[in-house]
Design brief:
Helix content: 40-55%
Oligomer: single chain
Bound molecules: zinc ion
Number of helices: 26
Distance between the termini: 43 Å
Number of strands: 16
């Protein structure tokens, strides 16, 4: 995981100078409980805290959903950073200077650019806002908003603005920023012919796009006449990625948490309009299909999501893709169908917020919606169609993770296709349930032999023991591959800094392994007074069981060889066996 341009010793320096409690506290409120800190897990919805942070070991683990790791993997998971990005951010906090990244702007430079882009976007938002509220040029935009029924309060809370016509208004206004910064913001575009650049947004209603902390990171520009495109967005920049952004979320996230569910809409005005009418637990995607990242943003705040747009419009395939996304998150999805293809903006404007809320009551689970969509395609009174329909429905049913629900849906689907549920069940059984198809959030409970777990946890808790037992510690004594790797790596270390547990987690690329190890490492240190004796005894037993398993394997091979009458092989195997038997006698005769 640390395969980055940042040398190991600097990673270590960042780790030693960083308080995991401080970093996580910026995202999750934590309370001290004994040696640990606890808070509400940001990775699954919960009411009582099971998310645990241990400052000494430098690790976190959620006993609710099983997610765990160190300060780097926390930022990677919570903010979708890469390892180098997380390390850069923490280095900056801790005042650790990093070497420049090859082929890119120096890292200090990247962070500096990021700061400048935040500042520029903020200033630009006020610049546009000023034109909307205080200049004669903003008249057309003001009229447009009036037509949409949006008043002053909305203009203020969304910081709406107006980009005046002209090719260099913004460019000249912000001449204190270098051309490099202006281009990186996407607010200006490089001229194809000749020198310099020009404003991207001209004569448009400007809608600032914020990140979840409320920084302006991009803009959407709505045409005021017949210009194309109707909506022009900022391009993807250092600050802005559509896949990772939910419009308005900085205004609505607390409301979503309070309600426990989010209404997911598409586009600016389907958010702004209901929001201005008091329906506030909204989130909007921006000109992109729903992504796993979007759901990851929502998950800490909600357990249910109502899709308030027409998933029908995008077709069956798209709806199934959306269903897959939801099945691999632990969010429940419902589809709200609005009448006659109306969007939320139109419903709220024409009929009011209370009517809009009425439609939520008739929301249908997304699974039902997808099954209905498939069944609707076929005239199931014809036998051939029934078969085709079953073939399409089965893969959907097979994805439903809970047996009980699967059975319910199976009955429902059978009824709709007009066949017996027994027949459908038989077909369903033929489909192999590939587990990998549904990446579940709940951790697979993996179990290594408890003796091996105890040994590894104890060695990391008291790294001095590693030196004491260096000659007797043989990684091959351990049967569990993950624990075996921990022991081999720890033996290679030359020094044992604090937070060794956090360091060990960096050795594992698989999230599943980090989750498992963080759970193990969370256990308190050994209570034995004579730990050395216990470790020594433990090693002896592990060695003995290793020898036993070799003996068993040899015996099996002897039997096989006997059956095949290969005498030479038998002799050499028997010799090996007698050697190992005497070795095992030796272990215990030394006592
Ligand atoms: Zn959790």
């Amino acid at each position: 995981m640390t395969t980055s341009y940042i040398p190991e010793n600097l990673i270590e320096e960042i780790r030693q100078r960083t308080s995991i409690v401080e970093v996580i506290s910026e995202h999750v409120p934590l309370k001290k409980v004994g040696a640990n800190y606890k808070g509400l897990c940001p990775f699954h919805p919960e009411k009582t805290p099971s998310f645990t942070v241990n400052p000494q070991k430098g690790i976190f683990h959620c006993f609710g959903c099983g997610v765990g790791g160190n300060v780097f993997s926390f930022l990677m998971k919570h903010k979708q950073y890469t390892f180098p990005e997380a390390a850069e951010l923490l280095a900056k906090r801790a005042g650790v200077r990093l070497p420049p990244r090859a082929g890119r702007v120096a890292d200090a430079g990247t962070l500096e650019l990021q700061e400048k882009l935040y500042a520029l976007h903020k200033e630009a938002a006020y610049h546009f806002h000023h034109y909307l509220v205080g200049s004669p040029e903003g008249q057309a935009a003001r009229e447009y908003l009036k037509k949409r029924g949006l008043g002053e309060a909305v203009v203020k809370s969304f910081l709406l603005g107006y980009a005046p016509p002209g090719w260099e208004r913004l460019r000249r206004k912000f001449s204190s920023y270098s051309e490099e910064v202006l281009l990186a913001s996407g607010l200006v575009v490089k001229r194809e012919k000749g020198e310099g650049c020009y404003d991207r947004f001209r004569h448009r209603l400007m809608i600032p796009i914020h990140d979840d902390k409320g920084h302006v990171i991009a803009f959407g520009g709505r045409a005021l006449g017949d210009e194309e495109p109707k909506y022009l967005n900022s391009p993807e920049t250092l600050l802005f990625s559509k896949r990772n952004t939910l419009f308005g979320f900085h205004l609505s996230k607390e409301e979503i948490r309070r309600e426990g569910y989010a209404l997911l809409v598409e586009g600016y005005f389907d958010f702004i309009s209901p929001f201005s009418q008091g329906i506030k637990n909204l989130a909007a995607t921006l000109g992109t299909a729903l992504t796993a990242e979007h759901l990851r943003i929502l998950r800490p705040y909600a357990s249910k999501v109502y899709l308030v747009f027409d998933p029908d419009a995008a077709g069956v395939r798209a709806a199934q893709r959306t269903l897959d996304l939801f099945l691999s998150s632990d969010l429940r999805a419902y589809v709200v169908s609005l009448p006659e293809g109306r969007d939320p903006d139109a419903v709220v404007r024409e009929w009011g917020a209370s009517r809009f809320k009425e439609y939520l009551k008739s929301a249908k689970p997304l699974v039902d919606f997808v099954i209905d969509q498939i069944v609707a395609k076929w005239d199931v009174t014809i036998l051939d169609n029934q078969i085709a329909c079953v073939n399409e429905v089965l893969p959907v049913l097979s994805k439903i993770p809970h047996e009980v629900e699967r059975t319910e849906y199976l009955k429902l689907a059978a009824n709709k296709i007009q066949i017996s549920d027994q027949a459908l069940l038989e077909e369903l059984k033929k489909i192999s349930f590939s587990r990998s198809e549904i990446p579940k959030i709940a951790p697979k409970k993996r179990r290594a032999p408890s003796r091996e777990e105890w040994l590894v946890a104890t060695l990391l808790w008291e790294p001095g023991l590693v030196a004491t037992f260096k000659d007797q510690l043989d990684p091959t004594y351990l049967t569990d591959p993950v624990l075996k790797k921990v022991v081999s790596e720890v033996l290679l270390l030359e020094d044992y800094q604090p937070s060794l547990q956090s360091r060990v987690l960096d050795l594992f690329d698989q999230e599943e392994d980090r989750n498992y190890l963080s759970r193990l490492f969370m256990k308190p240190g050994s209570f034995f007074t004579n730990v050395e004796m216990m470790v020594s005894d433990c090693l002896k037993r592990l060695k003995e069981s290793r020898i036993q398993s070799i003996k068993r394997a040899l015996t099996r091979q002897v039997q096989e060889a006997t059956q095949q009458k290969v005498s030479q092989e038998i002799n050499s195997l028997l010799k090996k066996k007698s050697e190992i038997v005497s070795e095992s006698r030796e272990i215990f005769s030394k006592d």
